[in-house]
Each structure stands twice: as C-alpha cells, then as structure tokens.
Automatic annotation (TrEMBL):
Main location: membrane
Protein name in UniProt: Metal ABC transporter permease
Similarity comment: family membership: Belongs to the ABC-3 integral membrane protein family.
SUPFAM superfamilies according to UniProt: ABC transporter involved in vitamin B12 uptake, BtuC (SSF81345)
The organism's place on the tree of life at top rank: Bacteria
Location of this chain's protein in the cell: Cell membrane; Membrane
Transmembrane segments: 12-32, 52-76, 88-108, 136-160, 172-189, 195-215, 222-244, 250-267
Membrane topology: Multi-pass membrane protein
Record flagged with keyword Transport: yes
Keywords (A to Z) from UniProt: Membrane, Transmembrane, Transmembrane helix, Transport
Signal peptide residues on this chain, from the entry's feature table: none
Length: 278
C-alpha cells in the first residue's frame, strides 16, 4: 500500500479528489436542504450525454461535460419557479436526455472510438487515478472556484432556502441566487464526473450532506461538516482502493460514503432547525 501511495498517480488523485469532494460537500448541502436531489440525478445523466456529444464531435470531453451540465442546469432553473428546478420539468426532459446520450454513444463508438476507446466507460464509472497534468489543474481550479462562490453566497442562499417569500420581500435576489446555485451544481457535476463517474455522481453530492444534516441542526455547522465528511470519504475511498487494488476507486469512495451515512442512523437524529437558529 505504501508503494501505491508514493506513486504520482495516487498523489494526483488525492489532490484533485480533495478539491472535488470539498466542492461536492458544500454544494450538496444546499442541494439536500433545497430538496433538489432530483436535479443532481438529472445532471448526472446530462454529464454523460454532454461528454459523449463532445467525444462524438471530436472535442475534449470536459468541454461537453461543463457545457451540458451548466447549460441544462440553467435551463431547468429558467423553466422552474424563481430559479428553482421543478420536478415536473426535470421529469419531462429526463427521458429525452437519456435517449440523446445513447445516440451520441452510438455515434462515438462507431466512428471515433479508435482514438479513446475507454473514454465512454471512464465517463460512466470515473477515472480519478487517470487524471494528470492539465486535468489536475483544471479540476483544482474549477472546484476551488465553486467552493469560493458557495461560501460567498452561503448566507443569502440559506435565507432564500429556508424562507423564500420573506427573503424576496427583504430584497434578496432569490431568482438570481437560484440560477447561480444551479450553475454551481452543474459545474460541480461536470467536475465530479471525472472522479466517480456519472452513474455514482449523486452519491458524492447527497451522502455527505445527508449525513451532516442528520448529525446537526445548525446550518453553518452542517455546511462545514458536509464538506469535511466529503473530503474524508474521498480520502478513505482512495486509501481503500490502494489497499485493495481490485476495488475500483469510484466504488470504494461510494462504499465509504454510504457506510458513513448508514452510521448516522446509529446516532440520535438531529432536531429540526429552530427558526431563530436558522
């Protein structure tokens, strides 16, 4: 295990994974608090479709990842109410997105798979141990920017989340915050897909936040705890995969995240947040 940890690919994965997990923990907290988990699920499929579209067109898959997830996130917000994603809107678009992804996958595998034969699989299941060079730089930069923006808008976003009507009456730009948040979810989804894959993306967004909310009813403490749990679960998954090479890193990360969330049921659930505390 010590030999694997000393390798450059593991250190690169640890660096990129730390920033990706931190961003997922912060964004995921508000995603759970705003009851928009279905949005994260939809964007995980959008990430696959966008990546396949970019590869089918001969472009870098990251271009498709970010363009699709951020664009569709904003589109969903625009069709919803006050920038919030609407489940009916998401459900209406969901099947079409999946079908489009299958179409681009077919185009890619039949015409361009010779150049990057395993790219489709890496999009579905992640390839964090395969990140290197420019990919590491982009991952750290994007995740760092997402974290910074979330922290800057955390207070008004929390206000708009807990009491939308009062926040709007107080002059909080609820709709703008809704769009900004969905753009952040899209960027986070595009980035995290490279680490855990589009199929497992939702777990990295939801599990740490869900555990944090069960452990504390204080919003800012839960936000910090969600980020800390996400990073710890990323590290734990990478170390588990290093100790047992037959375990894919994506599976190991999700296994640790699921175990942590399940463990919170052994702890007394957090009380609902008191309005004064919120």
């Amino acid at each position: 295990m010590s030999t694997v940890i000393s390798q450059a690919f593991f250190q690169h994965a640890l660096l990129a994974g730390t920033f990706i997990a931190l961003a997922c923990g912060l964004v995921g907290y508000f995603l759970v608090l705003r009851a928009q988990i279905f949005t994260g699920d939809a964007l995980s499929h959008v990430a696959f479709t966008g990546a396949m579209a970019a590869l089918a067109g001969g472009y870098d898959l990251r271009l498709g990842l970010f363009a699709a997830t951020i664009g569709v996130g904003l589109l969903i917000g625009g069709l919803g109410r006050r920038g919030r994603a609407d489940d009916v809107v998401i459900g209406s678009v969901f099947a079409w997105i999946l079908g489009l992804g299958a179409f681009f996958l077919t185009v890619y595998t039949t015409s361009r798979s010779g150049a990057q034969g395993g790219a489709g699989t890496s999009v579905l299941f992640g390839s964090i141990f395969g990140l290197h060079g420019n990919q590491i730089t982009v991952a750290v930069a994007v995740a760092g920017a997402v974290c910074l923006i979330v922290l800057l808008i955390a207070r008004p976003l929390l206000f708009a989340t807990l009491d939308e009507a009062v926040a709007a009456a107080r002059g909080v730009p609820v709709r703008v915050l809704g769009f900004m948040f969905l753009a952040l979810v899209g960027a986070c989804a595009g980035e995290a897909t490279q680490a855990v894959g589009s199929l497992l993306l939702l777990g990295l967004l939801a599990a740490p936040a869900g555990a944090a909310i069960r452990l504390t009813d204080r919003p800012y403490r839960a936000l910090a705890l969600s980020a800390a749990l996400a990073v710890a679960e990323m590290w734990g998954g990478l170390l588990l995969s290093a100790a047992a090479p037959k375990l894919p890193p994506s599976f190991a990360i999700m296994a640790v995240a699921t175990a942590v969330y399940a463990a919170t049921f052994l702890v007394r659930p957090a009380r609902a947040a008191h309005p004064a505390t919120a």
